[in-house]
Design goal:
Blueprint: H1 7-12, E1 20-24, E2 27-32, E3 35-41, E4 49-50, E5 57-58
Antiparallel strand pairs: 1-2, 2-3, 4-5
């Protein structure tokens, strides 16, 4: 997905870059070029939101792929 301009993404210098993101229960693990990039960050900082009705995560600029 394309990383947002959140404070954490700007600090990590990944804003507006396409990265793989692995959803975890307590955060999002960024993956760059097949390798873990930094520590996990919060869903909100990664541009992932939670549907208020279903509680499921979603993002506007992401493509879901099977692991």
């Amino acid at each position: 997905m394309t990383m947002p301009w959140s404070e954490v993404c700007m600090h990590l210098r990944v804003s507006d870059q396409v990265m793989e993101v692995e959803l975890r229960e307590h955060g999002a693990q960024l993956i760059k070029e097949g390798r873990v990039f930094s520590s996990p960050i919060t869903w909100g900082e990664a541009g992932i939101y939670t549907d208020s009705t279903t509680g499921k995560p979603y993002a506007y600029n992401a493509e879901k792929v099977a692991a």
